Each structure stands twice: as C-alpha cells, then as structure tokens.
UniProtKB/TrEMBL annotation:
The lineage of its organism: Bacteria, Pseudomonadati, Pseudomonadota, Betaproteobacteria, Burkholderiales. Residues 159-224 form the HTH luxR-type domain. It comes from Lampropedia hyalina DSM 16112. It holds the Pfam family GerE. PANTHER family: NITRATE_NITRITE RESPONSE REGULATOR PROTEIN NARP (PTHR43214:SF41), TWO-COMPONENT RESPONSE REGULATOR (PTHR43214). This is Two component transcriptional regulator, LuxR family. PROSITE patterns: HTH_LUXR_1, HTH_LUXR_2, RESPONSE_REGULATORY. Transmembrane segments: none annotated. GO terms for biological process: phosphorelay signal transduction system; regulation of DNA-templated transcription. It comes from the Bacteria. The modification 4-aspartylphosphate is found at D74. One of its GO terms (molecular function) is DNA binding. InterPro entries: CheY-like_superfamily, NreC/VraR/RcsB-like_REC, Sig_transdc_resp-reg_C-effctor, Sig_transdc_resp-reg_receiver, Tscrpt_reg_LuxR_C, WalR-like.
Length: 232
C-alpha cells in the first residue's frame, strides 16, 4: 500500500487548522505563510514559526504552548533534519501531522519519510496546487504525496533510485558533491580529470532530472542524511 493511501487518526472538520512553519530561511517561511493565506476556505491558522527542528521542539515544550495540528517543515536544515523532527513528534505529540517539503524524489527516501512519521510529502518543484491538496488531505484524515511523486512511487522508475540507477563512479561523485567539494577537488580525490567529473555531474543531473548544479548539491546532501549513498 502506498503511504499516501494510509489514513491518519484525525477526523476531518471545519475548525481552524493550526500550523507551525519550520524552515531556517525566514523568506521561505514568509512565502509559505502567504500561500497559506491564499487558502481561506481551509481555515488555516499559522500559530508558530521556528528556524530549526530544535527551535520547534523547544517551543512545544513551553508551558501553555499551542500544539499545532500540522507542522510544515523543510527536510534539510541546520541541526536536525525535518525527518528527525517528524520522528520526534511522532513520539512526543502523536496527533501532530508533519508535512515535508523536499527536492528528493527517491522512492526509498519518500518511503522512509513516511515510516518515520511524515504524513504528507510535497516536492519543492511541485505545482502550487499540491500544497493545497496536501493540506486538504490532512484535514480529511488522509496522508498525501505530490501527484508526480506518487506516480514515481508506483512506477519505481530507476532514474530516481539511489544507488541502483547510477554507476559506482557516479555514486562516488554524488557523495563528494554532497560534501560541497568542487569539481577540481572531486577530480583529485577520485584520480580523474576535471572534464570527466563534469561529465559525471551532467549525467547525474540527467538521470535524477535536476535542473542545475545547485539542485544536484541539495539533492545529494538530503540523500546523504538518510544514508542512501552509503557504499555498497
């Protein structure tokens, strides 16, 4: 069964849905808040914001803290990740549902996210309407994955799997990209030419359907956090 088909324990309703935003970039939180304000029919109420998973948990520990119904969190932040936050909330506040925003479309990554307690998973490159659909699903007591991600989970496309879709050399390059190394540094570490490294980077972007080097680096880092790039 796909994780998006598993119902949650919270029944739908028309009472305000309390939201906490967790992202280490204030501008990103501002953008999400504005998008939520454009959905008045969902009765959303942003009751708290945090710059990290640790900040979010500290706020929730305070006496009299308003416990949100939904936490919208980036997956990759300084300190603990959004998935670690989801796992902790599943233990401490089982009624709180976590909606993750991520660039990673890997089937193993998404499946593990749901196993850790995530209730909704939306790609950062998904259409704007996906956030609306995700929150609607959560209000109705369902879990959710973006349409494009859901299709990939069903089809198990090799182009989004790590490491099976990649050659061992491409996986090596991706691991070093995740460490923030330049093409020159990667070439030195792997004893190859810079041109060969650039060829591998281009191949990685094509296989993983990433637009540029910045998204490749973010993708690699998020995968590394889940040990999906462990040597095999």
């Amino acid at each position: 069964m796909n994780p998006s088909d598993v119902p949650s324990d919270n029944p739908p309703g028309n009472t305000p849905m309390r939201i906490m935003l967790v992202d280490d970039h204030p501008l990103v939180r501002d953008g999400i808040r504005l998008r939520l304000q454009a959905m008045p029919h969902l009765h959303l109420d942003v009751v708290a914001e945090a710059a990290s998973a640790e900040d979010a948990l500290e706020q929730l520990r305070q006496p009299g803290a308003t416990i949100p119904d939904v936490v919208i969190s980036d997956v990759r932040m300084s300190g603990s990740s959004g998935l670690e936050l989801a796992a902790t909330l599943a233990r401490l506040h089982s009624g709180v549902r976590v909606l993750i925003l991520s660039m990673v479309h890997d089937t193993e990554f998404v499946s593990r996210a749901f196993a850790l307690g995530v209730a909704a998973y939306v790609g950062k490159d998904a259409p704007a309407g996906d956030l609306l659909h995700a929150l609607t699903a959560l209000r109705e007591g369902r879990r959710y994955t973006s349409t494009s991600l859901d299709a990939r989970l069903h089809q198990h496309q090799l182009s989004t799997r790590i490491p099976s879709a990649l050659t061992s050399r491409e996986a090596d390059v991706l691991r070093l990209v995740a460490q923030g190394k330049t093409s020159k540094a990667i070439a030195e570490a792997l004893h190859m030419s810079v041109r060969t490294v650039e060829t591998h980077r281009l191949s990685l972007r094509r296989k993983l359907r990433l637009d540029n080097s910045a998204t490749l680096a973010q993708y690699a880092t998020e995968l590394t956090e889940l040990a999906l790039l462990a040597r095999h």
